[in-house]
Amino acid sequence: MKNHVFIRFLWLILLSTFIVVSCKSSESTVESRQALNELEAILNSKNFKIDVNTVLPFNTAATTQVLNQLMRNTGNTANHISVSGYDITFKNDSISGQLPYYGEQQISSGNYNGRLGIEFNDIPQDFSMTKHKNKDAYIIKFNIDDIENTSENLRIIITLFSNKATNINVTTSYRTNIGYRGQLVDIEE
Question: Origin, by domain of life (predicted)?
Answer without folding.
Answer: Bacteria
